[in-house]
Fold this sequence. Notes:
Keywords: Hydrolase, Magnesium, Manganese, Metal-binding. By secondary structure, the chain is α+β, with helices and mostly antiparallel strands. The protein has a single domain (2-253), classed as 4-Layer Sandwich (Deoxyribonuclease I, Chain A), CATH 3.60.10.10. It is 24% helix and 25% strand. It contains 7 helices and 12 strands. The chain has helices spanning 15-25, 44-49, 116-137, 171-181, 188-192, 208-211, 224-227; strands spanning 2-7, 29-33, 52-57, 65-70, 75-79, 92-97, 100-106, 142-147, 186-187, 218-222, 230-235, 251-255. The strands form 2 sheets. The protein has a 6-stranded mixed beta sheet. Strands 5-6-7-8-10-9 form a 6-stranded mixed beta sheet. The chain starts with a strand and ends in a 5-residue tail after the last strand.
Amino acid sequence: MRIATYNVNGVNGRLPVLLRWLEETKPDIVCLQELKAPQEKFPEQALLEAGYNAIWHGQKSWNGVAILARGMEIKELRRGLSGEDEDLQSRYIEAVINGIVVGCLYLPNGNPAPGPKLDYKLRWFERLTAHAAKLLEFGLPVVLTGDYNVMPTGLDVYKPERWVDDALFRPEVRQAFKTLVDQGWTDAIRKLYPEQVIYTFWDYFRNAYGRDAGLRIDHFLLSPQLDQRLTAGGVDRHVRGWEKTSDHGPVWIELSDKQD
């Protein structure tokens, strides 16, 4: 089974790119972030015609997350995280697909930092961490994937010295990610490539993609039940070079069939 995550940076504006990539790679499950579309404007019909069922949590102009499944039923479990009732931002959706709990997330950026946006990011991280702990308690196969807006280490960022004050790389943000992972999650891409420079995002400015001046901010966290089934993973880097594409590249992992 191939599971992918892709920050599309506008699902309607990037729909031709998304459909081309789906046709080319045929992932079984896809988590999308930054839909930038209200609930009623999600391109459900186009995705159905491409072979994908979908659930989504939209928001006008900003945020938005979705889960797609190729030829499989999607049983939605929740949308949003508990702990802050007044939070109306569409950043989390969760479902069961083929026996796997899939959490799709778009963590806040947090800039400018310090300030209210960083405070919100850290609170959101705390809410995610609390929810993740409950998921682990159930002992089910779980994947938490999406745009975490954090580079965990200096290996995950081009010229880290330039990012020390940025909300994606500040010590308290990296510590929040580490606290989450230390519950018992596996950073799938880093497990597969422990010493390799791998990026998932390249800014539109200053020829970042051409210079490979990127960031690794899109992550797969696997519960112990899925860690044992991880066989491959990578970044479809070439998609970032397509016309009118997102500033993220799709990231994917492959899991073996469940072991009895």
